[in-house]
Amino acid sequence: MVEFSTVAIGVLLSLELGYFVKAVVYAFGSRFLLPKLHPLEASRLYGICTTRDIDFLLNHINNARYLRAMDFGRVDHFTRARLLSGLGGKKVQVLVAASTIRYRKPVYLFMPYRLESQIVYWDERNLYYRQNFETIHDNFLRATAYVKLTVLGSSPDELLTACLSESPERPTIPNDLESWMLYVKQNSENLKKKL
């Protein structure tokens, strides 16, 4: 018979324990150790490319790891900006509906980087984040991304108003974001036609 400890270790390893530990550390640090942010202000997280992040060439961050780091960046921003705190017991979900990323230059093994996350626009249903990866030694923009978050059970205006006590003015939409939003809309319409 297999011992309980062997099964427990197998389960922990299959769940990628490091990811969950990192999520708890970031959430705790964002909530209790880092200063509060204005919701439209950029948050910054710092990281380093480790052996757990590299791709099969063994020298730079795997493309999927950028997306995972971006998750941590948005959690940090949401937590520090207290975006969900003013809604009381209301059940609100914020889900990634779409994302796009442009890789300009690799982040190599053991290279420290800064991830900046900021809400740059919103509409009736969605928040739009810009997230940038810059290497610290040269401040070079290595990758840039937009992420569309759909708000369920509330609206972006309600989220922002609840934590600001006033309704913020919607910013001008960046040109590149507007083009990407048009692509996402056209793509959705094409997919609906196929159903």
Automatic annotation (TrEMBL):
CDD domains: 4HBT. InterPro entries: HotDog_dom_sf (IPR029069), THEM6_lcsJ_thioesterase (IPR051490). It comes from the Eukaryota. Belongs to the THEM6 family. This is Protein THEM6. It comes from Penaeus vannamei.
